[in-house]
Amino acid sequence: MDGKTVNRTITLVAFWVTVLLSLPLVGGFFGRLHPAFDSLAHFRVHLAVLLLVAALPLLLARSFRWHGFLAALFGSAAILTVTGASLPGAGPVQASHQPADPLSPVYRLLHLNLRYDNPEPGKVLSLIGRTRPDVVTLNEVSAMWAEKLSLLSSAYPYRIVCAGDSGAGGVAILSLRPLAEGIEAQCLDGGTMATATVDFGGTHVDVGALHLHWPWPFSQSSQIDRRAPMLAAMAETAILAGDLNATPWSAASARIAAASGMAPVGPAGPTWIHHRLPEFLRFAGLPIDRIFAKGAVIVHSVATLEPVGSDHLPVLLEFSLEPADPEADDPLTATASLAE
Question: N or C, which end of the chain has less CB nearby within 10 Å?
Answer without folding.
Answer: C
